[in-house]
Write a structure and sequence with these properties.
Length: 127
């Protein structure tokens, strides 16, 4: 599967007192990337939710390489890594041009309307 790309601009609200992106805000950038990735598979994430297909982060491993700074124009790259029907594994990177700033390996699980574990719909996992 190809990477899903999402442009991100760093705003003042994203930064800390040092003028760099506050560490927790990288998770927001990655969340946006995952939401756009799922929406690009044919349905907006809100439609999936209305149909009783819910998504939750189960595990996330984040590595911070370089800081993003106020005004930077970056890109979130999201790629599906083959896994099980019960866990969607996503490789995500925040890039500033050719520079790798932050990367995350994220395991997402699928829940039904009662918040019980269920398989992912096939169209989300198919290449």
């Amino acid at each position: 599967m190809e990477e899903q790309r999402l442009p991100v601009k760093v705003y003042y609200e994203d930064t800390d007192c040092l003028g760099v992106v506050y560490h927790a805000n990288y998770l927001k950038f990655f969340e946006r990337g995952r939401s756009e990735f799922i929406s690009a598979r044919g349905k907006d994430i809100s439609v999936w939710n209305d149909e009783g297909v819910l998504f939750a982060v189960f595990k996330m491993e984040v590595t911070f390489h370089l800081a993003a700074r106020l005004g930077d124009r970056c890109e979130v790259l999201t790629r599906l890594v083959p896994g099980s029907p019960y866990r969607m594994k996503m490789d995500q990177k925040l890039m500033r041009g050719d520079e790798l700033l932050t990367e995350a390996m994220v395991d997402v699980v699928c829940l039904d309307g009662d918040f019980e574990l269920r398989e992912f719909p096939e169209e989300l996992l198919d290449d």
